[in-house]
Amino acid sequence: MGYVSIFLGFAIVVILMIRRWSPLMVGLAAASAVIFLNGMEFGSTMSEVYFKGFSSMFESLFPFIFSGSLLAQIYNRSGAVNSIGDSLSNKLFKDGAAPTSRYVSCILAMVAASGILCYCGMNSLVTLIAMYPIALRLMERAGVPKRFVMGILSCGVYTFAMSGPGSAEVVNILAMDTLGTSSYVGLWGGIAGVVAEIAVVTVLMTVMIRKAVAKGEVFAYGPKDFVAKEDKERPGALISLVPLLLLVILFNVFSFSIFSATLIAWLLSVMLFWKYIPLREGSRQSELLDSCAAAGIMAFGPVSSVGAIVGFTSIVQSLPEFQNLLTWVFGLKLSPTLILIIAISIVAALTSSSSSAIRVGIPLIAERCQEAGLSAAFIHRVSCFACSIVDTMPYSTAIIINLGIADLDMKEGYPPMFVSTTVATFCGTIVCALFMHVFPNLP
What we know:
Helix content: over 70%
Largest sheet: none
Low-confidence stretches: none
Distance between the termini: 47 Å
Structural class: mainly alpha
C-alpha cells in the first residue's frame, strides 16, 4: 500500500494543480491521502512530519524572499524597472533591421532585462509582472506575436537566473546552505550552461516566431493589457542599477547573507528613488509603508505554497517505500552524474518546484554522490541546472500564474514556455555537467 499511496498522492497533486486548487489545499489533500492509506496517526503525523517540513521550508525561504519583494516594490513603484528595461532595448534595437534581426534583438532585450533583475535577487513573479508591459512594447516594435511573451520572459526568470554561479535566487542559495559551498562554485561550468540556455532559447524561439508570422500571426494587445505610461518621471538607468550592483557585491564579494545584502540594497534604493516614489494621500511615506505591506503579502503566498508541497513530500519521505525507490534509482547501472540529474529531476517533477527539488533532493543524494566521486561543487552547480528541467509541467503553479498574467490559454502560451523552461534547461544541464566533467580543476 505504501507504493500505491506515494503515486496516488502525487497524482492528487497533479490533478488538483491542473484544476487550479490552492497549493496549500493541494498539499493537505495529498498528505491526508498518504496518511490514511498507510494507517498512520493523522494528528501526530501532521504535527511532527507535515508541519515540520512546512515550517523548515518557510524558515529557509521567507527572509530573503520578503527582502527581495521589498526591493522589487520600490523598483516597480518608482519606475526604475522600466528605466533598466528601456535602456537595454534601445541598445539592442537597430532601426531598419531585417525581421529576424528584430526578433533576436527583442528576445535578447527581454531575456537580459528580466534575467539581470532576477539574478540580483528580485522575486521572479514580481519581475514578470513588472516586465510584462515593457515586454509588450518591445514585441509590438519587433512584430512578435503576443503568445510568445511568457516563453521569452521565462528564459530570464526560470533558467540561468536561478542556476548560474553567483545568483542571488532561491535555488542557488538553498544549494549553498545544504552543501556548505559558495554562491559562485562551479563558475566556468555554470557560465557554459548559461550560454547554452540563452543560445537554445534564442535560436528555437526565433524559428517559432518566423513560422508563426509566416502563417499570418501578428502582435496584438489583449483586452486586459495596458501600455505603460511614458510621462511619469523616473530614475535614470545607471542610477537604477546601483542598488542591484551593491546587492551583488555585498553577497558575492563580502559574503553578506542574502537577507542583509538585500535589505541594505533596499535602503539605498529608498534613498536614491525617494522623489520618484508616487504620492499616496499626499505622502510618499504612506506609499512606502504600503509597499512594505504588499511585499509581505507577496512573499507569504509563494513561500506557503512551496511549504505545503514540501510538507507533503516530508510525509512521503518518511515511508520506507520511498527510500526503496531511491535505492532503486541509485542501483541503476548509470553514471553518478546521470543519477544525480535524474534524482533531482524526479523530485522537481513531482513537486513542481525547483526550490523543493534542491531542498528535498540534495540531502537525499549528496552523500551517495560524493561517495561515487562527485565533488560538492559539481553537485551544487549541476543540481541547480537539473532542478529546473521539469519543474514547469502544465500543472505547475508557475505556469498557471504566468499564463494568467498574460491572459493566455495553455494551448497558445505553453509551447514557448516549454522551450525555455524544459528544452533549454535540459541542454544547459548537459553542457554544464560535461564541462565540469572534462575540466574538473577549473573553479
